[in-house]
Write a structure and sequence with these properties.
Blueprint: E1 6-11, H1 18-31, H2 33-39, E2 42-47, H3 50-59, E3 64-67, H4 84-89, E4 94-97, H5 100-106, H6 110-122, E5 126-131, H7 135-139, H8 143-154, H9 160-163, E6 166-170, H10 184-201, H11 204-209, E7 212-215, H12 223-227, E8 234-237, H13 244-253
Parallel strand pairs: 1-2, 1-8, 2-3, 3-4, 4-5, 5-6, 6-7, 7-8
Helix pairs in contact: 1-3, 6-8, 8-10
The protein binds 2-phosphoglycolic acid.
């Protein structure tokens, strides 16, 4: 069996000002959290708002700093968007793509995600691609159909050599911010299903090495159960990543 590293990634969404970001950075530096996590084989990442990317990068020692989105184009008339070159300039080389809030509120499609992921991979970024079914799709037993089409379209026309820089986060929409976290059995079943899709699309090596995360109401009290599943390599965490104490508790409990 391949042994994969664990990834704990915080998604701050539209939370935390620059001064909040500085306080958070100081606290995790005081905990030596990146080193503590690294000794446990855990990589730590946080995706703050665009405004706080540079601050987090400069202040939180050793932490991977990720964007929450980025445009597929290198520049141009795309009001409010930012490009990979802008991220690169401040040393940010990770981006989340396809978060359900972008899909739900801004109509982002799997094809949009595919264009963005291709741009990221062409620029040697790591793309954290979010997939997940809505509550209705879950009730209608459509979870695996939805996941299959999101993964297939989102990652279409990507070379196997580049797919190694993709992380997939399985986040059932009904579990995000609701406190209704999916059971560890569901998380394992879907993450293992995603790995099998990756194997079919690319090859066994890419599938064996890809980090696949669970996300949706992950808390210090339940993170251990997910990370104990053989196909769940980490967690994408919203609410519980906002406070340094809680972020530390997530690391402690893995
Ligand atoms: P939550 O958010 O942990 O607050 O449920 C997860 C996410 O949206 O990535």
């Amino acid at each position: 069996m391949v042994s994969r590293k664990k990834l704990l990634m915080g998604n701050w969404k539209m939370n935390h000002t620059i001064s909040d970001t500085i306080s958070f950075s100081k606290a995790i530096n005081d905990f030596n959290l990146v080193d503590v996590a690294s000794k446990k084989g855990i990589i730590l990442a946080i995706a703050p708002t665009y405004l706080s990317l540079d601050t987090l990068k400069k202040n939180a020692k050793g932490l991977i700093v990720s964007s929450q989105d980025c445009h597929y184009a290198s520049h141009g008339a795309f009001t409010s968007s930012i490009s990979v070159d802008m991220l690169k300039e401040i040393g940010v080389t990770w981006s989340i793509i396809g978060h359900s809030e972008k899909r739900q509120y801004e109509g982002e499609t799997d094809l949009d995600c595919n264009r963005k992921i291709k741009t990221l991979l062409d620029n040697d970024f790591t793309a954290v691609y979010c997939v997940g079914e809505t509550s209705k799709e879950y009730d209608d037993n459509l979870t695996k159909d939805v996941i299959l089409s999101q993964v297939r379209t989102g990652l279409q026309n990507i070379d196997s050599s580049k797919a190694k820089n993709v992380v997939i986060a399985y986040e059932p929409v009904w579990s995000i911010g609701t406190g209704k976290n999916a059971s560890k059995e569901i998380a394992q079943d879907i993450c293992s299903y995603i790995r099998s899709i990756i194997k079919d699309m690319f090859n066994k090596d890419v599938a064996d090495n890809m980090l696949i995360l669970y996300g949706g109401s992950v808390k210090p009290e339940n993170i251990h159960d997910y990370l104990a599943c053989s196909d769940v390599d980490g967690a994408l965490v919203g609410g519980a990543s906002l406070k340094a104490d809680s972020f530390k508790a997530l690391v402690d409990n893995i």
